[in-house]
Amino acid sequence: MIGPLKKWWQRHILKHEPITEAVWQNVLARLHFLHRLTPSEVTLLRQWTTIFLHEKVINGAQGFLVTEVVRVMIAVQACVLILRLDLDYYRNWVEIIVYPSQFILDHEYVDENGVVHAVHMAVSGESWLAGPIILSWEDVADTDNDQGYNVVIHEFAHKLDMLNGAANGFPPLHADMDPQEWTRVFSEAYATFCDRVDAEEIAAIDPYAATSPAEFFAVLSEAFFVKPCQIKLYFPDVYQQLVAFYRQDPAAERSHG
């Protein structure tokens, strides 16, 4: 669907499938990091969220009941990442599965060296290449943590990373961005961060970011939206790359008048 037809269809969805004001205000009140948005940005976010909910299916697992608040809570955070982009960034998959709490991940994968690894662990989220996103509602609802932890932003950042293949911390960049600069900035920052974690230095960023370049990108994307000033302070070059990629500057001073 392209051009005028796409715009017509989106207007149709916004008119006939609106998010109720009560649910919208309920969700906004719980997501404090959204309070930085201007009124026009909130309006745009609501539009993307509405269209997202039309295009994606959110199902509960293990008897979890998916209410309208649950749907909007997940969708609005997913749409923060693409606020200045487009929902086409979430193409080629449709389902989000929500468990009541952490779920067991049990699968095998082959790393870049051809070594097979077996995984059996409790996790709060998972993104599958060309497949669903799986979330723990207990973790989605934990919006007041001090670490800037946000499982929805984390897993949807992985989805953006997977647009050009397996997640590796190198999503498809815009034409005006320099891939070599992205690689240099993220590689240097990742090495520095891993050294800090190995030295057991207290970090303002989740140590899980040291797991791999893919997790580094996802964790820093979480922090970029939830506590941007800390990313700008500790990794200013990474922050500028994320500003260019997401086309947002969440640490910037702005007027809400």
UniProtKB/TrEMBL annotation:
- One Pfam family linked to the record: Peptidase_M90
Cellular component per GO, a single term = cytosol
Entry's transmembrane regions:
none
Superkingdom per UniProt: Bacteria
Q: Name one GO molecular function term.
A: aminopeptidase activity
The name of this protein is: Zinc-dependent peptidase
Which organism is this protein's natural source? Nitrosomonas nitrosa
